[in-house]
Amino acid sequence: MPQSGLLATLAALPGVSAGLLEAFRSAAIASGAVHCALVGGTVRDLLLHRSGLVSWSGVPDLDLVVEGDLPALVACLTDDLGPQRLSRCQWHDSFGTVALTVDGISVDLATARQEHYPAPAENPIVQPGTLASDLVRRDFSINAMALDLVSDALIDPHGGQAALQARSLSLLHPASVADDPTRVVRAARYSARLGLDLAEDSRAQVVATLNRWPWPGRNGVEAPPALSTRLRMELERLFDHEPWGQALDQLSCWGALPLVDVGLQRDPQRRCRLRRAQRIGLPLMPAWLAAASQPLLVAQRLQIPGQQQQWLAGLEALRRWLQDAAPPASALPSVWTQALEQGDWPEQSVALMVCLNHPSWRPMWRWWSRWRQVQSPVTAKELMAAGWTPGPALGAELRRRRLQRLDRL
Questions:
Q1: What local confidence, expressed as pLDDT, does residue 212 receive?
Q2: How far is the C-alpha of 63 from the C-alpha of 110, rounded, in Å?
Q3: Are residues 235 and 128 in the same domain?
Q4: Residue 248: CB partners within 8 Å, gap ≥ 6?
Q5: Do 225 and 251 share a domain, yes or no?
Q6: Do residues 186 and 138 lie in contact, with contact meaning Cβ atoms separated by under 8 Å?
Q7: Which pLDDT score, from 0 to 100, does residue 223 have?
Q8: Would 332 be classed as within a structural domain?
Q9: CB-CB contact of 140 with 187 (8 Å)
Q10: Are the C-beta atoms of 106 and 60 separated by less than 8 Å?
Q11: 47-105 pLDDT, tens per residue?
């Protein structure tokens, strides 16, 4: 394959030095590796940058695939670099990978692999393979390219470079979504961040797979637990690192949100609710799931943090109280404050209900933002100095004076 010139381009950019790339190149040659290649996002983003399609944002870490003797390559690196340059070397034998820190850059080295899925959406069975088999197991053509450090050749068997030029996002094979449905969420992330359109045949695959798959809530069949874990991780990346509004709009457009919950597909207030959650300071995941048909069950299936599950459980109790026993929206601050603080729900459940734009959201918002922070105008110490003795009566007096103060605001 002809040289691509990409290694020189990469070495000239912030984040990766020519010395680091040369160290891996030398170790690959010395160990007799067939390939030692950069893969994944670095290759994709480098091509986008060289084409002027996106600006270079740096390299948080490097992913390399080795077709050859990985321990021998690492031994050559260790001998050549020494502990000052190679400051971390952590093996993960069960995965055939090693995590390195070289010149302050995190590098993940993996033995080339092949995989197959024993059943749709289950975790794959992984075995040693070639660089070609390693690329074919990936999600999209834009991520199935490799840049060989020895030859400086761009290895692009699935048309990833052409797809980038066409601003297209193509799944690698007809069973991509059935094998790993979280690829739909990944497609939305890449589409939102990189401005790519899902290719027509890939979109058809998404729609067809979603229509026939027994997602949770469809046909009474639960999805494999492994899917829920991977799905949560993809959604966390979406909310933490991507233009989440655009990504969720894409998932909705593709009819893909039943992957999480059918209620989230019918969610016209999604953007408004999540923006409000951002302003309030709530995590976006529970604010998004609050509109699900069964928020707590979805949260438990995704295994989001237990504290956030408690907020969603409290949301259900708060919703019942608002329906059956809440004061009118015009009631005094003291009435709302006393009622909300005596309820069996976390404070964050009230904030979630505000985000849901409940008809009584205004008094709940005032309680969340101001009223709950109001204290009695006198302290317990001052009351005791005036003759009160410690005990329940003192506490009741402090609460009474606090409520009086609230109504004078």
A1: 81
A2: 8
A3: no
A4: 188, 238, 257, 270, 271, 288
A5: yes
A6: no
A7: 65
A8: no
A9: yes
A10: yes
A11: 999 988 888 887 778 999 999 999 999 999 999 999 999 999 999 877 789 999 999 99
